[in-house]
Amino acid sequence: xxxxxxxQTLKHxxxxxxxxxxxxxxxxxxIAVTGFAPPVWIARLVHYVxxxxxxxxxxxxxxxxxxxxxxxxxxxxxxxxxxRSRHPRTAQPGRGGTRRIADNPPSPGxxxxxxxxxxxxxxxDDLRKREAFPLSSEPGRSGPPRLSIVVLPFANVGGDPEQxxxxxxxxxxxxxxxxxxxxxxxxxxxxxxxYKGKSVDARQIGRELGVRYVMxxxxxxVGSRIRVNxxxxxxxxxxxxxxxxxxxxxxxxxxxxxxxxxxxxxxxxIELVAAEGRRAERERPxxxxxxxxxxxxxxxxxxxxxxxxxxxxxxxxxAALRLDDGNVDALVxxxxxxxxxxxxxxxxxxxxxxxxxxxxxxxxxRTAPNNALAHYVRASVLYLMRAPARALRECELAIxxxxxxxxxxxxxxxxxLLLGRPEETEAHVAxxxxxxxxxxxxxxxxxxxxxxxxxxxxxxxxxxxxxKAVELNPNHNLSHFFLAAAxxxxxxxxxxxxxxxxxQRLDPTFSVAKFRDLAPSNNAVFLAxxxxxxxxxxxxxxxxx
Length: 545
Description:
The chain is an alpha/beta fold. The protein is 60% helix and 8% strand. Strands 1, 2, 3, 4, 5, 6, 7 and 8 form an 8-stranded mixed beta sheet that branches. The radius of gyration is 29 Å and the shape is elongated. Residues 1-5, 15-19 and 87-140 have low confidence and may be disordered.
């Protein structure tokens, strides 16, 4: 299309100007330019606005009014810039029940409260509520709020002016994506951009903005590739908590920007929760509140899944709910811990755990209906209830609320396998891996890919993928049993027997009959394809009953 390039250029220009330019600046520019109009235009303007006759008679003697118009426009521009630097906006609502602190933030004891409501609150409404909802790091303590962070402008290594808007766009998009983390407080990009090009110690930035964490990074163009460096810093100590570097093939700039920010946002969210969990254990091990306990639980859940971790996390979520039975993060985490145990086929009381998990997700979604993670966890619960079609709809709802939620993308692919469509699984899981290529749940995603290939009869490829799943998380019993089945179906009997033995060490009670009885779907195509798995497990040495 011949108009595509001009439209893309306008988008780039809009992205560049959106932060620093306000309506008043544009008005000032318009007025200043108007002052350069020819004298006859200004004379006609005065005539058409029906100025008093005395003014019209005097006007030819005062054509230097053009100078005044130019100066007025300049004054508006300068005044707006000075005003915005000293009196920025106070608050700006984020998405998903969190708030993004915009421009110059209030003092640490005067932060706005995260809210589950979905409608956009006005600035005036937020200001009225500041006194009613002061938030600090813990009740009765001063200091920055938990999960408070500023994303500093990423550095444009090399200084290529054509890449500047792209680098700034990464910073702005990352700020927006982080604001979706439940309970997060993210300094808006307008305030963050006041540090652009400056070398300022992270601890000073933390004190000035009232945040616990500082995110910084750089983007460098290297031939046909883009290299991204990012670091997460503790603003209290200056310690580096996490760092990552990765390269991307140069492609459509907006696609690259979306992929980079989604990848960073998921990882940073996990690291922030882990850091807050460690801080709570270090600073107040015997005095954790509900938020502390919920974050400790999620820090455990965010590791590669295991049965022991699911139960340890559940203890934290249950303790949090004893202190605050409406804590959404604890409710969602409790349900996820039950789902993790249920998926392992070693649940102590599956029906009771399903009931408790369903009640927890229902309560969480009544409080926060637009919480994408809650919809994803509800999909996990529906899987245990053998309702994959409903689970797929929950995944789609979650993705609609947060298109970067990699967990929901992968799980949608798994649900399609259960609905007799394993050929569609790979695309969904590939999207999840693209969004979060180092995710703690990566072993499960390779498991989904391997299982779909077993169902499709591609046993050699399945064995390769399931071996990756086992290497990433050797504590998942089903990965071993499916690997054993794939190897046996591929006539690799010795390796199959070894994989079966590894699975039995994790779950001595596993059998073909048990696996058959707990089939998570009654779809005819799925059940027919599943016969191949039973046959492979028998050949590998899995007991029949």
